[in-house]
Amino acid sequence: MTPAERWVDEVARTTRPARVVWCDGSLAENERLVGEMLADGTLQKLDPQAAPGSYLHRSHPSDVARTEHLTFICSREREDAGPTNNWMAPAEGKAKVAPLFDGAMRGRTMYVIPYVMGPLGSPFSKVGIEVTDSPYVVANMRIMTRMGQKALDQLAGGSDFVPGLHSIGDLSPERRYILHFPEERLIWSVGSGYGGNALLGKKCFALRIASTMARDQGWMAEHMLILELTLPSGEVHYVAAAFPSACGKTNLAMLVAPLEMQGYKVRTVGDDIAWLRPGPDGRLWAVNPEAGFFGVVPGTGPETNPNAIETISHDTIFTNVAVTPGGVPWWEGKDKHPPADLLDWQGKPWDRTGKAAHPNSRFTVSAKQCPSMSSRWEDPQGVPLSAIIFGGRRGRVAPLVFQAFDWDHGVFVAATMGSETTAAATGKVGVVRRDPMAMLPFCGYNMGDYFGHWLRMGTAVSKPPAIFHVNWFRQDAAGHFLWPGFGQNLRVLLWMVERISGKGKAVETPIGLVPTPDALNLEGLDLPKATLETLLSVNREEWADEVPEIRAFFERFGARLPEAMTRSLDGLAQRLGVTASV
Ligand code: GTP
Ligand code: SPV
Ligand code: MN
After folding, report:
1. Positive or negative, the Cα torsion across 572, 573, 577, 580?
2. In this predicted structure, what is the pLDDT of residue 581?
3. Which residues are tagged catalytic?
4. Cβ atoms of 470 and 401 closer than 8 Å
5. pLDDT value, residue 580
6. 195 CB under 6 A from ligand 2?
7. Pairing mode, if any, of strands 71-73 and 86-87?
8. Pocket test for ligand 2, best of 63, 117, 194, 203 (most atoms within 8 A of CB)
9. Is the pLDDT of residue 579 over 80?
10. Of ligand 2's atoms, which has the minimum distance to the CA of residue 425?
């Protein structure tokens, strides 16, 4: 028996399935699973004209988003999980959750999903094995990862894989746990069939477990899109960007350049996760470990994201969207005219008051269907980064864009970024919280140590990427977005590239370098001068109010906070003219 077979055997002895199926990832296998899911109502076939090859899945109404309060890092020491993670001792976690797996698959099929995160054959790729009783998870993993025989081939009978045990259990939030054992590189997830809770290759492995591997091995696992920007001169830049969940990564990665006629071109490398490592040339190189997109549906329309619309026009799994009785999917932002007789995301006649699609409804689709994929998206070496962007969703305070003074300041900016919560996780929406590097829910270890790792990585490369911060979501007093966003975000990317080449004009403010109003290329864009001024304004009082809040956030890390971070905060306080202590 191989180590993988031994582990699967052991799992089957506790979960007691009627049968064990090793998934090969083939089309035939997928068709068989889809057939079974259509028969038992897990999937519903969508209209073959409007959405060929596509299906609707309605999840349990209490299981529609990641549940951060039920997600735990089970390191031996509480300190190693840090103040921002929920913690249980490994033995306690296992004692608590093992009974939920006990006989959980009785009478049902246990699927074994071998999968690769990262391009096949890349030295940076990693193998995972997920065991699950959910055929919906199998169908999603087949799209999101390189799954099946190719993963077993890469594993070659060895033991270098991350095991992930998943059961939907009884779907009760009372008995839902997503546990990570970073020292053992092991994942246990029970009680949820939803995306990030259940597709264990994604947030559990490629971010939480991978971030601990990366810390130990000198690389980084980040919640980032990767895009390729080509200029009319033919010059190419790769840019990674970390925005919190449902804050615009997919949309920026698939951006259609409004100036494409002039030779500006954006192509997609990844939309959610990036694995970064120092290259032999002193640059930071990025790989997208995923093979598909698990993207936010609402807001996806022909005007906002035409590439996504084309991508999801066929062979897509929709989760929790609305649908016509004839099977045409619909969601807020698809078009302005919801069809008559719409069924909402729970399958009830839509009364036109609330949302028809769930705000966190998602599409699962292969990257191969996306017309904007870069020719290098599966490059086994990855792509070299010119810039890293951080960003949040802030109705106020944060300007459209600013540049950090240097790497260490950039790490400070990223570590202190604030963003309004979204429907991607359960809980209140629209509350500003600190979400360092957009990794608050995804860092597998103490974030104080994580900041230290970021600082060290800056010295591990002789040519570190420039660091920027953006905010597409600033609002006027009436709550309207001031910046058109989406494709127009290209203009901000162009300023960044000009900064990198030493040309772009900027003014120094206490928080960083902000473009002068004439430094942005706004050709063909009808943006009132006063709006631009507001977008680029840095209000000292508002920023001064952030200082004590950031200080309180930092204090939570105690001695695990690198000194450079305190120095950066003192620097900010000084530039703002506020006293350094609370
Ligand atoms: P996760 O998959 O949860 O990690 O999210 P993401 O960061 O990929 O977010 P996504 O691109 O799916 O965007 C989330 C929501 O923000 C969608 O409803 C988008 O329509 C909206 N959005 C994205 N970019 C912009 C923008 O530039 N301006 C505005 N106003 N909305 C945007
Ligand atoms: C996110 O919440 O950041 C997502 C969706 O990308 S999930 O896979 O559920 O984490
Ligand atoms: Mn995400």
Report:
1. negative
2. 56
3. 247
4. yes
5. 55
6. yes
7. parallel
8. 203
9. no
10. 2
Q: Radius of gyration (Cα) for the chain, nearest Å?
A: 23
**Tens-digit pLDDT profile for residues 67-84:** 999 999 999 999 999 999
Are 3-43+66-218 and 222-290+374-542 the same fold in CATH? no
Pocket lining: 331 vs ligand 1, CB cutoff 6 Å: no
Question: What are 297-355's pLDDT values in tens digits?
Answer: 999 999 999 999 999 999 999 999 999 999 999 999 999 999 999 999 999 999 999 99
* Residue to mutate, 68, 224, 225, 272, ligand 2, most ligand atoms under 8 Å from C-beta: 272
Going by alpha carbons, the residue nearest to atom 2 of ligand 1 is 295
Q: Is 441 in the pocket of ligand 2 (CB under 6 A)?
A: no
Task: Give 324 Cα–ligand 2 centroid separation in angstroms.
Answer: 26
| 486 in contact with ligand 1, CB cutoff 6 A | yes
On whether the 3-43+66-218 domain is CATH 3.40.449.10, my answer is yes
Report the C-alpha gap between 164 and 189 in whole angstroms.
8
- Residue 402's CB: how many other CB atoms inside 10 A? 24
Domain boundaries, the chain: 3-43+66-218, 222-290+374-542
CATH fold label, 222-290+374-542: Phosphoenolpyruvate Carboxykinase; domain 3 (3.90.228)
* Residue range 557-571: mean pLDDT, rounded: 98
Grouping H, G, I as helix, E, B as strand and the rest as coil, residue 556 is coil
Which pair of tokens denotes residue 7?
Answer: 């582990």
Closest residue by CA, ligand 2 atom 8: 196
